[in-house]
Amino acid sequence: MTGIISDLHIPFEKEGFIKWTAEQFKLWGVDSVICIGDIIDHHAISFHTSEPEALSPTSELELALDKLELLKELFPVMKICRGNHDRLPKRKMKEMEVPENFMKNLAEVYDFPEGWEIADEWIIDEVLYTHTATGISGARNMAIAERISCVVGHAHSFGKIDYITNRRGETIFGMYVGCGIEKESYGMRYGKAFKLAPQLGCGIVVDSKEAYFVPYRDGNIPTIR
């Protein structure tokens, strides 16, 4: 049983969301955890104009480190997919023509626990976990193209599963796992004009064959199948 943590964008995550996710995983009997990417937002060093009241890069880093402590405590063992926001520090330094030998990796900067592993993508029990797909059918299209079940994030507004079965009765799925952001935070202000609001929630994969999206609700305890 695999639990998938959606885009957190720390320090702009929804208050209480990390603890809620841990509670859902306990209810479902999750025994392995994957963060689908964009674990850190890096608003202060992004390529976009920062909001006027934004914290300095140093202050945002300190806040993110503080907020990460709960995630480390609740999920001491976790696989992480690199998201586009996770890549921002290296992209920024590359733009400044700083040689990679001078760069610290994300695990060093944020003092990842020994039980955390990070990679661009993971294939576990014939399911591909990766950060980026686009469009409402992005997860489905990726599953068809890769010929394997896929779990993706990045598209904050979608929490959904599409099953695809061929003529031989072979079934795969594509799942979007939503996000865990606080939409009212200044770091997420760019999305206010979007037609669809963020869909908060987490993902569950059972025996690599079944996928479930659990939508977030304050105080929500879902009925377990």
Question: Could you describe the 3D structure shown?
Answer:
This protein is of the alpha/beta class. It has a single domain (2-215), classed as Purple Acid Phosphatase, chain A, domain 2 (4-Layer Sandwich), CATH 3.60.21. Helix content is 23%, strand content 25%. It has 5 helices and 11 strands. The chain has helices spanning 17-28, 57-74, 88-95, 106-109, 138-146, and strands spanning 2-5, 32-35, 78-81, 116-119, 121-124, 127-132, 149-153, 159-165, 171-177, 201-206, 210-215. The strands form 2 sheets. Strands 4-3-2-1-10-11 form a 6-stranded mixed beta sheet, covered by helices on one side. It has a 5-stranded mixed beta sheet with strand order 5-6-7-9-8, with helices on one face. A hairpin with a 2-residue loop joins strand 5 (121-124) and strand 6 (127-132). The longest helix is centred in the first third of the chain and has 18 residues, at 57-74. It is globular and about 55 Å long. The two termini are 13 Å apart. The model has no long low-confidence stretch (mean pLDDT 90).
